[in-house]
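S.,

Sequence below, as promised.
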Amino acid sequence: MPRRYESLDGLRGISAIAVVLFYITWSNHITETHLIRESYVFVDLFFILSGFVITRAYSTRVHTLREAGSFLTLRFFRIYPLATIRNDGRRDWGTGHTGNIVRP
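The prediction came back faster than expected:
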């Protein structure tokens, strides 16, 4: 069983929260801070850490092309519905906004 990296879990959590705060579009005292306005870099950090953790967790479970295909299929069907709902929701809010966020 692969070792768990609890410190990386915490850093991934902080990164995820920073990304969520970055994408909040209404102005408030938290989202207008310099740290949150520049927290787009946490997206990269989150994906790098997630890739490392997932690779480490599955490196002992995936040995053949069939297992890799099964893993990718499961990941796709886990992520795709959420991404579709998120994108449809952003488009349908009636704001005329299609999901591209531009910050000054």
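The mean pLDDT is 78.

Coffee later?
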